[in-house]
Amino acid sequence: MVIEGFTYHRVPVADGVSLSAAVAGEGSPIVLLHGFPQTHLMWRHVAADLAADHTVICPDLRGYGASDKPAESGPGTYAKRTMAADVVALARAFGHERFALAGHDRGALVAFRAGLDHPAAITHLACLDVLPTVDMWDVMRGASAAVGFHLYLMAQPPGLPEAMIAACPDVFFGHFLDAWTGDAQAIPAEVRAAYLEACREAIPSIVADYRASAGIDAEHDRADREAGRRLEMPVTVLQQDWGAALGYDAAALWRAWAPRLRHDTVGHGHFMAEEAPAEIAKALRELLTRTGSTR
Predict the structure, then answer these.
(1) What radius of gyration do the chain's Cα atoms show?
(2) Residue 20 near residue 9 (C-beta atoms within 8 A)
(3) For a Cys staple, 258 with which of 4, 178, 190, 231, CB 3.0–4.6 Å?
């Protein structure tokens, strides 16, 4: 499947790694990064909206969809630092040294890392329905952490999680599409089928992406937190009320990283860009107008 009206490109971003990206529109650039268990298609409604007056770039992340899936040769292969560098290289390939960046779920973790590692390139940052990796591990404890069982499964050494998921991939990936959706109609059957097919073909790289978050990604976040590094660009965070369920203050955790933060709790399911695309597009447009500090 494709996003109607968008042109597709394959762009080299690192040695032996090219990303597939859908591009449309004219104006100030914004890159949209998808989450799990999805591809760039999750942005189809929001991207079409924003393309009316922005250049919109929607890639499949390294290891997902139609992008390359290098074998995991070490913790850095799917580190968010590596994946963030991919995104900056992608934007530069289209002629954009500076751009806005929005990510959902796994894509939000890549966006967060890009904001810390490449502050001169990222003008505005939006993260949908995540906490920074190191904070996520800090709040996941006790029986309530069972909601994140997949995080622990895919944190295991190579071999076991890949074999377990490969035994019933549609059941595994389909579970999240069902459990995390507030409006089942938001992901039509053909889109769901496209997501499942893409995931079946990317089990080792998806697991490697998650495995990195249990190791090197948390190490990078912890080092930045200890060094006092922060996101100095305007930042918008939209989240479900996971803090109430798991016992933490999500806005406070984010504010420690982002002094120019706007944090809003939403009533939609996890897949909010598909469930409430007009609302998400509006929030991104508001972000792009901000230049000063906010609440």
Answers:
(1) 17
(2) yes
(3) 231
- 225-245 pLDDT, tens digit each: 999 999 999 999 999 998 777
Cα three-residue angle 38-79-60, rounded to 5 degrees: 30
pLDDT in tens, 34-62: 999 999 999 999 999 999 999 999 999 99
3-state secondary structure of 86: helix
Residues 99/265, Cβ–Cβ less than 8 Å: no
**pLDDT for res 292:** 53
Give 74's contacts (C-beta < 8 A, 6+ positions apart): none
- Give Cα 13 distance to the centre of its chain: 18
d(CA 30, CA 54): 7
Q: What is the pLDDT of residue 246?
A: 79
Question: How many C-beta atoms lie closer than 10 Å to residue 148's C-beta?
Answer: 15
> How high is the mean pLDDT of the chain?
96
Active site residue 224: no
Least confident of 64-68, 73-77, 240-244, 268-272: 240-244
Task: Enter the tokens of residue 150.
Answer: 């997949």
Neighbours of 24 (CB within 10 A): 19
CA nearest neighbour of 270 among 246, 295, 238, 292: 238
Q: What stretches of the chain show up as alpha helix (H) in DSSP?
A: 44-50, 80-93, 106-117, 133-139, 149-153, 160-167, 169-179, 189-200, 203-213, 216-227, 242-246, 250-255, 272-275, 277-289
Would you call 104 a catalytic residue per the annotation?
no
From the candidates 49, 68, 86, 105, which is the catalytic residue?
105
Q: What is the pLDDT of residue 149?
A: 96
Give the integer Cα–Cα distance in Å for 33 and 273.
11
